[in-house]
Amino acid sequence: MTTEPRSFFSHTAAISPLPTQSYASEASPALMVRGLGKQYVTPKRRLTVFDGIDLDVQPGELVCLLGPSGCGKSSLLLTIAGLQSADRGDVWVEGQAIRSPHPSIGLMFQEAALLPWLTVQQNIAVGLQLRHMPRLSRPALRSRIDQALLSVGLQDFRYSYPHQLSGGMAQRVAIARTIARQPRLLLMDEPFSALDAITRLEMQQLLLNIIAQQHCAVLLVTHDIDEALLLSDRILLMGRNPGHIYQSWRVTAAQPRLRHTQDLMTLRAEILAALSDVMAEPAAMTV
Ligand SMILES: Nc1ncnc2c1ncn2[C@@H]1O[C@H](COP(=O)(O)OP(=O)(O)OP(=O)(O)O)[C@@H](O)[C@H]1O
Ligand SMILES: [Mg+2]
Asked: What is the mean pLDDT of residues 47-52?
């Protein structure tokens, strides 16, 4: 726990936009987002899915993004990852403007999405050989795969096929595939929500270990307030119509957070109250 119980969590003031396009310096956040907005235009509708998003994630920091279904969390992650274009605003990762997939960003989803005809180590290798990745020599490739397997505890399963793995093991391979690329920013969209409660706890601990080892930044979408309380350095609550950052809290309780202390319970109640305010907002606005 913290030595100053009263400062256990705190509201974070809105982040003001930066005046310049370039900000690279040693103190740069791992991720910086300013004024990000996105519209989906289909023949039937034009939807402003999110707008005016400002957020920072520091190296070694884990930020959880909570919010009602459909508020635009996945859309925001895909846009930050450079997998779809923004209509407004900018994304920088370690000082570099992001407009397309970048080697310093790793992305993980609820499903492991392993290629069933490839072994565990081949699945990891595929992630290292994507078009936008720097080319690696064979020894370097081998060493990246070995390290990633060791980090997730699957050294003995390198020649296994996906159908020979449990759900938790498959998700470990997905983590290994992502961290083998040595990303500076991990974007995770409900990565543990398909797992049983015990496996989820193991995976959450594994993630904290990886952040401690690699000092990467993590932005993780979850529906689970308890997961956010267990893992986060900061929690962002997203509102809708269009998606925006409604409120944020800093969580300073020491890890490991093995049980809910009174402070965490107080914070939980506050987040639930804010979530019910957000739910009272009207649903998605279309034109
Ligand atoms: N490619 C797309 N084209 C058009 N509309 C889209 C597209 N992707 C998402 N949407 C719409 O954008 C809105 C937000 O979707 P998104 O998947 O980002 O929400 P979410 O917050 O991740 O929801 P959930 O918590 O259920 O995963 C929804 O109304 C959805 O229908
Ligand atoms: Mg989603």
From this structure: 96
Average pLDDT of the chain, as a whole number: 87
On the question of pLDDT at 27 being above 70, the answer is: no
* Ligand 2 centroid distance, CA of 96 (Å): 26
What is the full DSSP assignment across the chain? --S-GGGSEEEPPPPPPPSSS---STT--SEEEEEEEEEEE-SS-EEEEEEEEEEEE-TT-EEEEE--TTSSHHHHHHHHTTSS--SEEEEEETTEE-SS--TTEEEE-SS----TTS-HHHHHHHHHSSTTSPP--HHHHHHHHHHHHHHHT-GGGTT--GGGS-HHHHHHHHHHHHHTT--SEEEEESTTTTS-HHHHHHHHHHHHHHHHHH--EEEEE-S-HHHHHHH-SEEEEEETTTBEEEEEEEE-PPSP--S--HHHHHHHHHHHHHHHHHHTS----B-
pTM exceeds cut of 0.85: yes
Residues with CB under 6 A from ligand 1: 40, 42, 47, 49, 67, 69-75, 284
Which ligand 1 atom is nearest residue 50's CA?
14
Nearest ligand 1 atom, CA 240:
21
Taking 50 as the threshold, does the pLDDT of residue 241 lie above it?
A: yes
Domains and CATH numbers, the chain: 1-13+26-104+185-287 (3.40.50.300), 115-182 (no CATH)
